Amino acid sequence: MKKIYLYTLLLGLVGLTSCEDDATPVLSVKANAILQELPKSDYVFTADNASEPFTVKWTPTDYGFQASTSYTVMLTNLANEKSVELGTTSANELSLTNENINLLMNDLNVYPGQKGELAISLDYSAYEGKLDSVAGNVIKFKATPYDPRTVNIDWDYAYVAVYKPAVTKAAANADWNWATAYMIGDVNGDGKYEGWVNFEEDNLIYKVLDGKTYEVLGEGQTVAKKGFYQISVVEGEVTQSANPVLWGVAGDATPKGWGEMTKLDYNSETRLWSKVIKLLAGKEFKFRADPEQWYGIATTNTNNDGGVLGGEENIKVIAEEDQTYLVTLNLTEVGKYSYTLEAVDFVPSTEFIYLPGDYQKDGTADASADDCLKIQSPGLDYIYTGTFVLYKDKSFNFYEDTDVYYGINGEIKWEEDGSKGTFNIQKNAGDKIKMDRSGNFRMDLDTKNLTGTITKAGWEVIGDATPGEWSAGTVMDYDPETKLWSITVTLKDGGMKFRKDGDWSKGDLGGDLSALTDGGGNITVTAGTYEIVLNVEAKTATMTKK
To answer: Are 356 and 367 in contact (CB under 8 A)?
Structure first.
């Protein structure tokens, strides 16, 4: 679609004339589409009117004959000329809701409680894109968004806007996302803002802005190590926990008692801490942060549904028998931290299993270190996978938590060509796995059936010149020392490319061997046996005929 310029009107008639042997009719605009004015010129979005319709209508374009036309509706903030697309349709109107428009205001940097000067424009295309134009007018209106998270908040709150170091101060002040920004609050009315923020990368910078005036309460703060932190602001002074904070549960209702917490897992998408845990009937627990910090409830709980946290009372498991629960901790709602308990029959696996070993820095074999490899079970179904470099003569085992680890039972049984190895594991027993070769491998582990596989993975040659033609790639060997991929393979006349992890969506290289490009063309091959060496970082390759 071509760029839309506001206030630009289509002048004159635009026509495309068919060739004599083409049945295409002559296209010309007899009359431009005209946007109709909105029912109101000033909107204030609230929770009460969020579901009300917001409909944009226009008179259709007249070509002098029936033509299939595609209309795209754009919304623009006149203050900064930022635009977002509302939708595309072949009809003569586009229906959304106030809630839809309210959330889009965030992309235009119109903040809650502030009135934005906006414009709606219309771009259209007809006859398979042979004729593009814009509507004969734009319509302007004002709108004030709201943040749905603040509807039931009656205390002062602030937003925590997070940036990468490369972002300039001017850009940071002009462009931040209120819909996804973490929030902290002055719940007690004593001038102290406090809350929790997850930082997904190392060395991120953040600032704190008043939730109503957007005055900067503190800025220039840096978090060296990614993780979950407690943030507080008092009289313009911003402080944060010294290290990332982990959350869990502790108590005589939990597997580890009061002395040690059972850790919860953090989900960065839902921003919730959760875990499936067996709790003992009639016993009690609290939520605990590491290091020592406790959240109980203000009053005695009368059911197992959950409640609001913040008091000193222990949480009692109200049940006639021990039960497995999905325990969830919500620290996202400013000043209204809460938890839920949901009884479950299926006990899911953990999301990650870690591979601590002597390949780590100083041979520490530390499962909590950043350089510890891990495999993931996205479906929490006891099936874990991950792809990474493993080194010859280095060893590791599989660490689930402080109570559960897995060791190898026997040895890895490699296929003759070295492309795949299989092994069995034991729970809380067995030996560490010691690699007898280096390379890039995919690790698959089944902790229910206690089996595992190590499969050579990474860059491969694929094409009608290769043994697997276009249906299956031939995986190359990886040398961690030189960071080069290599293979000796017999090729046919034809073409080939380099593909990553057997998946075109993960990347492929082609074109000139001395300057490979992403998605480049096929590499022409003359039949013969070749030693092929690929340097992914430099995007170069050599093919030496044997």
So the answer is: yes
3-class secondary structure, 104:
helix
Are 140 and 118 contacting, i.e. CB atoms less than 8 angstroms apart? Answer: yes
124 with 71: CB under 8 angstroms? yes
Q: What is the pLDDT of residue 523?
A: 96
Task: Establish if 101 belongs to a structural domain.
Answer: yes
- Same domain for 429 and 485, yes or no, is no
CB 460 within 8 A of CB 503: no
Residue by residue, what is the 3-state secondary structure of 61-95? CECCCCCCEEEEEEEEECCCCEEEEEEEECCCEEE
The verdict on 170 and 136 lying in the same domain is: no
Between the alpha carbon of residue 82 and those of residues 96, 115, 172, 521, the distances in Å are 20, 15, 16, 37
Check: CB of residue 486 under 8 Å from CB of residue 476. yes
Strands 265-267, 474-475: pairing is unpaired
**Torsion over CA: 506, 512, 515, 520 (sign):** negative
Give the helix/strand (H/E) hosting 474.
Answer: strand 474-475
290 bridge partner residues:
246
Cβ(26)–Cβ(18) under 8 Å?
A: yes
Supply the pLDDT for residue 199.
93
In this predicted model, what pLDDT tens digit does every residue of 414-473 receive, in sequence order? 998 888 999 999 999 999 999 999 999 999 999 999 999 999 999 999 999 999 999 889
Nearest residue to 185 via CA among 306, 310, 269: 310
Q: What is the pLDDT of residue 98?
A: 96
How high is the pLDDT of residue 127? 63
Residues 139 and 226 in one domain: no
Structure tokens at 281: 């009937």
Structure tokens that stand for 329 in this block: 């901790």
Same domain, 48 and 136: yes
Q: Coil, strand, or helix at residue 102?
A: helix
Q: Which residues of the chain have pLDDT under 70?
A: 1-29, 64-65, 67, 127-135, 166-175, 291
pLDDT tens digits, residue range 62-83? 776 676 788 899 999 999 999 9
Which range marks the domain in which residue 482 is found?
459-545
| Residues 165/172, Cβ–Cβ less than 8 Å | no
